[in-house]
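Batch queue: ligand-bound targets. Current item pairs a single chain with glutathione. No template structures supplied; prediction is de novo from sequence plus SMILES. Inputs echoed for audit trail.
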Amino acid sequence: MLELYQFPPIWSLSSGSTFCTKVEAYLRIKGIPYTNVYQMDPRKAPRKQMPYLIDTGKHHTISDSECIFDYLDEISPDTGSPLDSKEKGEALAWVRCFDHHYHWCLTYTRWMMPENWEITKPIYFATIPKILRNTIANSVKKGVIKTLYEHGLGRHDEKSILARGVQDINALAAYLGNRSTLIGNRVTRYDMSIYAMLVHTIRPPIESPLKDAVLSHDNLCQYVQLMDDLLRE
Ligand SMILES: N[C@@H](CCC(=O)N[C@@H](CS)C(=O)NCC(=O)O)C(=O)O
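Prediction returned. Tokens below.
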């Protein structure tokens, strides 16, 4: 049995974390049975980040969404038409762009834009007793500010951070054109990152130029819709 350790659902998302949504989406697309184990404290995770997966039968723990994907492909190999190395290279570049750059622009909109922090804070920290909520929320936020700075993005002003996120979105929309999936003619693991980042941008009640940018591209909205439909099946 596979146990997926992840942050719990919020708003209408499967999890508060893009990376957790990404992994759960892949498990569902592949039709692999799993159980969700919701956990709020990433310090309990092997790499101090969520998600992670435990294959209880094999006493095997895997953390990091990409490592989890490799494991899922190992136990349930992809039977679709294979991608060539150029297609794989392009898809990987998009995943790296969204997982390691766009994700931080999105994080900025939730944690750093004061009007959005007012929405995020009570939801993210709802399970913390009220008396401690502000102290803990502010201490976790300090960690996010530090990570954004160390990443490099946090050294820019808000206007540039948001502009960079919008650039990622516009570039993706141009690349996707009228195709319905990122690469090849079928849904692959690479779609899961892109779907997770887009759905986390448009679904929550968090307003930002990133959300406006996604919503302004019909092909990206249709892309999210297609993945939502497949995940409901
Ligand atoms: N490279 C990791 C990134 C996972 C990640 O950043 N998880 C975040 C939630 S979105 C987390 O657990 N953050 C807590 C922390 O870093 O303290 C993956 O692909 O799984």
